[in-house]
Amino acid sequence: MHSFLKAAALGVLTLVAACTAPGPVAVATEDPYLWLEDVTGERQLAWVRERNAASQAVLEKRPEFAPLKARVREVLDSRERIPYPTRIGEHLYNFWTDAQNPRGVWRRTTLAEFRKPQPAWEVVLDVDALNRAEGASWVWKGFQCEPATAAGVVERCMVSLSRGGSDAKVQREFDLASKRFVDRGFVLPEAKNDIRWVSRDALYVETDFGPGTMSASGYPLQLRLWQRGTPLAQARIVYQSQPTDLGVNAEVTPTPGYVRHLVQRVVEFNTYENFLLRDGRLEKIDVPADTFLWFHREWLLLQLRSDYTAGGRTYRAGSLLAAGLDGFMKGERRLDVLFEPTATRFLVRRAVTFTQSRVLVESMDTVATRIEELWHEAGAWKRREFALPGKSSAYARSLHDRSLAADTLGESVLLTYEDFLTPDSLYLGRTGTNERELLKQLPKFFDAEGMRVERLFATSRDGTKVPYFVVWPKGATADGMNPTLLRGYGGFQNSELPHYAPATGNAWMARGGVYVVANIRGGGEFGPAWHRAALKGNRQRSFDDFIAVAEDLIARKITSPRHLGIYGGSNGGLLVGAVFTQRPELFNAVVCAVPLLDMKRYNKLLAGASWMAEYGDPDKPEDWAFLSAYSPYHHVAAGKKYPEVFFYTSTRDDRVHPAHARKMVARMQEQGHPVLYYENIEGGHGGAADAAQRAHLQALQFSYLWSKLARPYPAR
């Protein structure tokens, strides 16, 4: 094993060094920019439009803006994109957008047809036509369908639509045979809601039932059973979470003979109280609160995020265990270890999927995907490696319909493979074999000839080795002048893996930019301990890791502060906000997207309270002590020099409040700092509602980056 990699992996499990944050700051009792928290007020939107106009006037005049926008739009609308399918009954369904269908069509075909280079698709629902008919601005948010009949037929789905891309959505019952919404069918009014099908005539429903039924984060606290033909308000309460909880959740495993109903009290992010609902009674499943669990036929599977002692043995965090469900519920603790982490290999955040007879387990070994298939035979668990096309990022999704007792596609698996320079490929595989049929492949959306990928390590403040990827453009050398874009996330156990990104490839790498992805703590690249290392009072470690990567890029002369830019969105927006306020001299460009920035009020804004398990509670003095040490909104200062930051957000983002970016911009402008700001009126947390908006936003972003980071023109 490479010594750096071994040190990094071992460092995950033995992090004891204290991290030093910049220090708490005094906070004024009155925030002069609270008025910007009114999302759609006339005065507030006038403020937004004024800054949008000023920023666009600068960036749209850049020579690269128009060609970048055109090329990104061409990629986003390309008919050569892979139409990733989902199986419903006898068909494969896909949601598709292009230039003719900007809000998209939901369509279907057969597997035999899908195998063809140009499948024939049948349109089931045209969202653009629906918008025209209803005078709305619906954005597709997905669907959930009833269990299949014994003959494999699925007829009804609940279709989710949101206004402008927000998380709040309307759900309407849809008939797949007639391709129409069901007259007097199930309809859930607009809210942050969810459903699970119980039968053709019954749904589990989580939605806003009025005062006291929604959490401080804006998520439902009640789980109800709604019978067809009865008013929604009269749906029977199945479970009620506590007022201080994050919410409630239900899952239905429809396997014939093994139907399971899981009810979860969601206490906080990644913390649950789990119940098995059977015979009308809730039976507690006695597992650690941070465990991810699944049902598979007679088995209960547990993915541990903390150590678990049971039956006289302690099982390590990051392990995957299996137990007979009936015995477990009776108190037996006969547990089989299906996976145990090593120094370099860890499960992904939710690692398990199922075929009819097998369990597919996805892990990362030195941030490269591995997939195993496991099955129980002759009293023991057997395993084999699932064949992958290479050693980078792969994703497996079963085509098995778990509501069927016998399924001709029960062992079929869709496999996606990609890396930074290899376009996505979609394969059809089968468990128990090494068969792999190439179904679809992206074209080369940018010229990667001469590009190369390098894996390097930086040393963080406490000595931890932090890995990062460098994608070098053709002909680039370590001369200290390469325009370099460094991105990171570092939160919620989400991992930054190698992905083929056509827009970034065209707008950045193919034009001579170095692209860097950092695998900092707070993410999941090295298991739950890598995540826990940056929780709450240890958040500064994520920032230190990112700073260490920036410093390493400069020390290696891959780039220099004049040519180094950083990007982060959502939690990544908090990351780059904290880093540029702490070390502004390291960067010449910052893209801060849909960010958290005001860590004093984040828990009072939209879904913010749901993240207190990650960040802490600013209303507790002991937590505010460490939050105030880095809160970007409270650390930006008039006497410091910062790069001209580009902030962007969305008015329709009902997850991370747009006031974070608004207030930061207002404060920086008051202090005399140059900033650029763009707020898309639609788009939700993704920032854009369709391809046109995404192309415009990305063209603004990359025009900004080139304006700040481009190499100097050679002297004439």
TrEMBL record:
PROSITE patterns: PROKAR_LIPOPROTEIN. The keyword Kinase does not apply. It comes from the Bacteria. Residues 1-17 form the signal peptide. GO terms for biological process: proteolysis. Residues 28-246 form the Peptidase S9A N-terminal domain. Residues 508-709 form the Peptidase S9 prolyl oligopeptidase catalytic domain. It holds the Pfam family Peptidase_S9_N. InterPro entries: AB_hydrolase_fold, Pept_S9A_N, Peptidase_S9_cat, Peptidase_S9A, Prolyl_oligopep/macrocyclase. The keyword Signal applies. Keywords: Hydrolase, Protease, Serine protease, Signal. GO terms for cellular component: cytosol. This is S9 family peptidase. It comes from Ramlibacter albus.
